[in-house]
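Sequence in, structure out. Go.
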Amino acid sequence: MSIQDNKIGVEMNRGFLQIMALLTLETPMYGYMMLRFIEKIGYSVEENTLYPMLRRLEKNGWISSRWDVEHDRPKKYYEITEEGKIIRNKLLSIWQIQNGVIAKLLKEVKNG
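Output:
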């Protein structure tokens, strides 16, 4: 994969990962748990991508966090907020429209 390919992938993933995180965090999870869950459904996210995104989502008020210190290793759990649910639904609506447009374009191009 070339550097240009990687840049394209990063740009395409930015919004996609936000939607995916907002969907995933309907159930509280800590970062590593999110990584494993996402891998389980067939996608891969790097830690150095996930954690900065979680900080941005929290700064925006779309997710909240709390520390669980009752076990051997403290874990920071993240969960979607009510504002995050509103944003998630708006993002999903936009994505559905865009997905429909792309499907129509592909059909038109294929049929010439």
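Check: The mean pLDDT is 91. The longest strand covers residues 63-68.
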